[in-house]
Input
Amino acid sequence: MDEFEIIRRYFARESSGEGIRVGIGDDGAVLIPSRDCDLISVVDTLVSGIHFPETLAPADIGYRAVAVNLSDIAAMGARPRWMTLALTLANVEPVWLDGFARGLFEAADEHALALVGGDTTRGEQTVISVQIIADVDTGKAMLRAGAQPGDAIYVTGTVGDAAAGLSILQSGLPRSDDVDYLIRQFTRPAARIEAGAAIASIAHAAIDLSDGLYADLEKLLLASGVAGSLELADIPLSSQLTNLMHEDDALRFALAGGDDYELCFTASAAEDKIADIGESAGVAITRLGQVLEGSGLKCTRNGDEYDYQDAGYRHFN
Ligand code: ADP
Ligand code: MG
Output
């Protein structure tokens, strides 16, 4: 099967999305931006064996490749519109490609996101780059910078589940409902698009959690030029996670684990207003810290100072 056959068979669907003058098939996609909007562009690359286990189901790989990018869009408070896919394949296996494309379109269709182009090549290992272009009302994108001393720090959903799920996938714990739940949080992360759009009106700063709560919150604080405190006892942990392990281990996954794709943000709005936003977006929002003057991120556990040494995921060490 050559490159063109792969594109035709697996990726060149009738584009259902709006704002497409020319989709797959020409030298470039021709897109129609909405009036009074800024465009947001994100790209994330998944390398086989590094960002996902080679044995992961191809549909899960396709789903994740889109979902991790959607999460960046969610963190900007934007609406996903168009996507391109750069695919490097070590082998051309129809069963793999079929599953991969199914997972990819499943994640895209949940948000009316259209695949409008890409690139297909052969290489030593499977590398998947997805780019998404989104839009947001002019000047309204949420940024990492903007947190103010006095803001509360919030997170959506629960944290630590996906990292625990990946660790279980790799160690092969016997299956149970709790185990399956955690694995699914890794294989099928739900990007918080609705929550991101909903909090955009009140958040001063936001980031999505891909490298671990501690490391990502540190990035937000650094970008904002402020300090923060994080109360470990307030970190929302799922019952599935705490059923399976001691709280100390659950907290380690939550702080350093990564792959959560929840949103962390700061705001000074009333707590009941924030709870309402969570309810309308279908996700719990939990307060777990405070923005302070200065720099750095300090942890407390039940009010006592807690010396946490972060080992969050970094690409080059
Ligand atoms: P070019 O040589 O001009 O870069 P290609 O022959 O590589 O174009 O690609 C042909 C068309 O197929 C282009 O519109 C390109 O965007 C699209 N395309 C290539 N690979 C993919 C892919 N994996 N998914 C979606 N569209 C793709
Ligand atoms: Mg060309």
